[in-house]
Specification:
With 294 residues, this protein is α/β, with parallel strands linked by helices. The chain has ten helices and nine strands. The structure holds zinc ion (ZN).
Length: 294
């Protein structure tokens, strides 16, 4: 690939990075990343991946921009209210970086369409706000051997993990969605806007590290932070041989549409099978273990 003068200048702060360089920037420009959900998580992910020069960015979102989104979904502006989110996000991406090609899907992912949507992408970002989508994305990525980044946020909390084939999947940690009514959403419990940005930029960073092939991804560990006390910790996991989707005798052999959990604040679930990693604090089971919404 021959960089134009403009590209050399645009990406100069990447190119001078010793672990990235011209070679890494080429990989980013050839990269294809799908962002499912262009809300609180997807917005910062899309902005940073566009700025970084990810060559193809896929956007999946069925919703239109609403006034209440603007407190955290930083890719959408006030004049965008009422516009499809994928269109609003696409306009900003093109405005940031003409090197990027955007492929938009103004749909909700379900068991019938997700395999076809993810198949041409190198890395998937789960920026969705509900458990049905999170488990569906996990299962579809496990079946298709696609790397993905899971992200969840709620109130002042965030969590992230990255999946590559062979590593622990989301169902190795949480084998099924929480019981109906167990976990609130952001619209019920609230979310500090900047927490969405913190988690989204972690997901964008994982995608870029994957594309350039450098560093240690968040594999077999769940990164958890609370922004109120600004403490980060990690819970380490192994691939679970009894996992219903990636285990040795899987019980889930095709994609399923989980029922959307209704939400209230009672009965917060604990983090199943979590072990505190050496040197880390014990798992705090009092805290919501299922941040999910964006
Ligand atoms: Zn698994």
């Amino acid at each position: 690939m021959n960089f134009s003068e403009e590209q050399i200048e645009r990406y100069s702060r990447h190119i001078i990075l010793s672990d990235l360089g011209v070679e890494g920037q080429e990989k980013i420009l050839n990269g294809k990343v799908l962002i499912i959900g262009t809300g609180g998580l997807g917005a910062p992910v899309a902005l940073y991946l566009a700025a970084a020069g990810v060559g193809t960015i896929g956007l999946v979102d069925a919703d239109n921009v609403e006034l209440s989104n603007l407190q955290r979904q930083v890719i959408h502006f006030t004049p965008d209210i009422g516009k499809p989110k994928v269109l609003s996000a696409q306009e900003k991406i093109y405005s940031i970086n003409p090197d990027v090609k955007v492929i938009s899907y103004q749909v909700r992912v379900h068991s019938g369409n997700i395999a076809g949507i993810i198949k041409d992408f190198d890395f998937i970002i789960d920026g969705t706000d509900n458990f049905a989508a999170k488990f569906l994305i996990n299962d579809a990525c496990v079946f298709a051997a696609k790397p993905f980044s899971h992200g969840g946020i709620l109130r002042f909390d965030g969590q992230a993990m990255t999946y590559l084939p062979g590593a622990a999947c989301y169902r190795c940690i949480f084998d099924s969605p929480p019981p109906k009514g167990a976990v609130p959403t952001c619209s019920q419990a609230g979310i500090l806007g900047s927490v969405a940005g913190m988690l989204g930029t972690i997901q964008a960073t994982e995608a870029l590290k994957f594309l350039i092939g450098k560093g240690e991804l968040l594999l077999n560990r769940l990164l958890i932070f609370n922004a109120l006390d600004m403490k980060f910790r990690q819970v380490e996991f192994k691939r679970n041989p009894h996992c219903p989707v990636c285990g040795n005798n899987p019980t889930i052999k095709e994609l399923i549409d989980e029922e959307l959990p209704a939400c209230d604040l009672k009965n917060q679930p604990k983090l199943p099978r979590a072990k505190a990693s050496p040197g880390e604090a014990e798992v705090d089971t009092e805290r919501p273990s299922y941040p999910s919404a964006s």
